[in-house]
Design brief:
The chain contains 15 helices and no strands. By secondary structure, it is mostly helical.
């Protein structure tokens, strides 16, 4: 007995080290890519481009994130996350570095869209799958902390980038992004090498059953470990696809265009970047709030609520020109997004198990990438045609309403919910 306790404690401690490394990595990766909205107008003016063509770089970015996400998820399940992350971070850092010499649209599409987009695909699925495999009854909290790194990066780096661009230009700023990507990936390469022990799953599952019994069974349990091929034949998998698509569409409409929208109302660029800061403050706070809500309600009901909140905020953005209202709406939208993203990701392992988590998350991330493709292009095209983002906000809100409806169907698969 004296040997058992230290061993369990060591495993638990290592799991949280994995979370810390994952959080640091998502800070760098998502902070760098999330700063694109700050680069949008300077690049557009320097290269003499349209808003739609410039913002399409983010759409290409998301497309390649989805493509490589499928591959990296399967490779993570088979070979582990470290080699996948090393390859990805080298490609991404090179892409940001080459942005310094970009002088044409095709170069921006290649360096930012293809290279850094492919790099992001090697971050998302391996990181979320690895964290999910280390936890069961605290999975929502662990994934929430990890995704908080995304929000921290998208809170800090756009403001930093805005100030750095003002002093040094956008080209030099992208060199800083390249260095940042390398540094923030180092802890993950170190700590992701240890495999999560199977008996941790067993011990956690026992605790889960105890917690579930004391809470009226509100936390759902995995009755089997699903393969990726089996998962795609179920209704919940396709509900994840819908929820991922609409969440990404609404998110990237806001992320890529809200700064330009605010500048168009007469707000200074540095002040406009603060909207993204408050957006991510809300997202960080939501990670811990939704963990409490899931324990009191359920993952499914909480997800529906926060998706509805995001839809409401996009509707309220229509016609809003006040800087302070934009700050408040950005903050609340961030709370909804942070909550929905955390729950959505943790529910994948909650419903399908962890055996093929990397592959399933990689497949589901395709929908996220498609939404990331559609959102920036759609909003950019609408702006070029109408010189207004109001229609884009309306469409984004309506899509999130559809996502909230789809969220009701995210239940553990059974014989009645399978397609065959």
């Amino acid at each position: 007995m004296t040997e058992f306790k230290p061993r369990v404690q060591s495993k638990i401690s290592w799991g949280w080290l994995v979370v810390a490394a994952a959080t640091f990595m998502t800070f760098g990766f998502y902070g760098a890519s999330g700063s694109f909205g700050v680069f949008l107008k300077p690049i557009e003016e320097t290269l003499n481009l349209t808003r739609a063509s410039t913002s399409s770089a983010m759409s290409i970015f998301m497309a390649f994130t989805g493509i490589t996400g499928i591959i990296s998820g399967r490779l993570t399940d088979k070979y582990g996350p470290r080699i996948v992350i090393v390859i990805g971070v080298l490609i991404g850092s090179l892409g940001y570095l080459l942005m310094n010499w970009t002088n044409s649209l095709w170069q921006m599409y290649l360096f930012f869209g293809v290279m850094t987009g492919a790099s992001m695909g090697t971050c998302f699925a391996p990181v979320i799958a690895t964290v999910s495999k280390w936890f069961t009854h605290k999975r929502v909290l662990a994934v929430g902390i990890t995704t908080a790194g995304m929000s921290l990066g998208q809170m800090a780096l756009p403001v930093f980038s805005a100030h750095f661009i003002a002093s040094n230009g956008w080209r030099l700023t992208y060199i800083v992004m390249a260095v940042l990507l390398l540094i923030t990936a180092i802890p993950a390469v170190i700590y992701f090498g240890k495999k999560p022990p199977q008996d941790n799953y067993t011990d956690s599952s026992r605790q889960d059953r105890k917690n579930s019994a004391g809470m009226g069974g509100k936390i759902s349990r995995v009755s089997r470990q699903w393969s990726a091929g089996e998962a795609v034949k179920t209704v919940p998998f396709w509900m994840f696809i819908i929820v991922g698509f609409v969440t990404a569409t609404g998110f990237y409409i806001l992320l890529v265009h809200i700064v330009a929208y605010a500048i168009g109302t007469g707000i200074a660029a540095v002040d406009a970047a603060l909207i993204l800061t408050f957006f991510n403050i809300g997202s960080i706070g939501a990670q811990f709030l939704v963990w409490y809500m899931v324990r009191k309600l359920s993952s499914r009901i909480t997800l529906v609520m926060v998706l509805g909140l995001q839809a409401l905020i996009l509707f309220l953005l229509i016609g809003t020109t006040s800087f302070y209202w934009l700050i408040i709406l950005g903050l609340v939208f961030g709370m909804g997004f942070g909550g929905s993203n955390t729950i959505r990701l943790s529910m994948i392992s909650e419903i399908f198990g962890t055996r093929s988590a990397g592959a399933i998350i990689g497949l589901v991330s395709v929908a996220w990438s498609v939404g990331g493709v559609v959102g920036p292009i759609l909003a950019g095209y609408i702006f070029d045609v109408s010189q207004s983002y109001n229609t884009a906000f309306l469409i984004g809100g309506l899509l999130l309403v559809v996502g909230a409806v789809a969220g009701f169907f995210l239940k553990s698969p059974d014989s009645r919910s399978d397609f065959n």
